[in-house]
């Protein structure tokens, strides 16, 4: 929806949960713009937009995004938890083979500027799973993607994701998915989990 913005406009910045990948950013932008808002700036976990109060209120946009899984965050601690998720996503899914040459903890600490002990404790308190487990879930999901692409050997995948051996990767893959790598390759259904759903309880 195109709209001519005049002086009668409000600015709003929201910190949002579950806004990790480019698809999430695209969806948030589309949801806002379809309801007459103009996105000024958007990045993982945060969006700034202009809206006309004659059309909708800030609460309307907040509820709209929450209805699609992007709940607004107000507490500083929760914002840090989302920043941890962003750092994990960057390291596992966007940083190429960086994961093989830098420890997960070092990367997260460098990105957030806080101690790993504090970040790990905070994450566990808010997410009801350990940060280590969350990282493992992302790594296994990346393994699935690389297997599906069928461009790398399992040995190359292990190296890229920082596993000490193919056996270690295979054992962790089975422990998380309940399948061996060979069984996964033969499976004809979709066993991939959306990135923003990792760590959440599965719906029945």
Task: Please give a structural write-up.
- With 204 residues, the protein is mainly alpha-helical.
- It has two domains: 10-67, 2-Layer Sandwich (Alpha-Beta Plaits), CATH 3.30.70; 76-194, Homeodomain-like (Arc Repressor Mutant, subunit A, Orthogonal Bundle), CATH 1.10.10.
- It has helices at 22-34, 58-67, 76-94, 104-112, 116-127, 131-149, 154-160, 166-177, 181-186; strands spanning 10-15, 38-43, 46-51.
- It has a three-stranded antiparallel β-sheet with strand order 1-3-2, with helices on one face.
- The chain is elongated.
- Mean pLDDT is 89; it is low at 1-5.
Which fold name fills CATH's third level, the topology of the largest domain? Arc Repressor Mutant, subunit A
Whole-number mean pLDDT: 89
- Runs in which pLDDT lies below 50 for 5 or more consecutive residues are 1-5
Total of DSSP H or I helical runs spanning 4+ residues: 9
- Classified in CATH, the superfamily of the largest domain is Homeodomain-like
How many extended strands? 3
- Pairing-aware structural class of the strands and helices? mainly alpha
- CATH uppermost class of the largest domain: Mainly Alpha
Main sheet summary = 3 strands, antiparallel
**DSSP helix fraction:** 40-55%
How many structural domains does the protein architecture include?
A: 2
**Rounded Rg:** 19 Å
Would you identify the CATH architecture of the largest domain?
Answer: Orthogonal Bundle
* Shape estimate: elongated
Strand and helix order:
EHEEHHHHHHHH
End-to-end gap: 37 Å
- What fraction strand? 5-15%
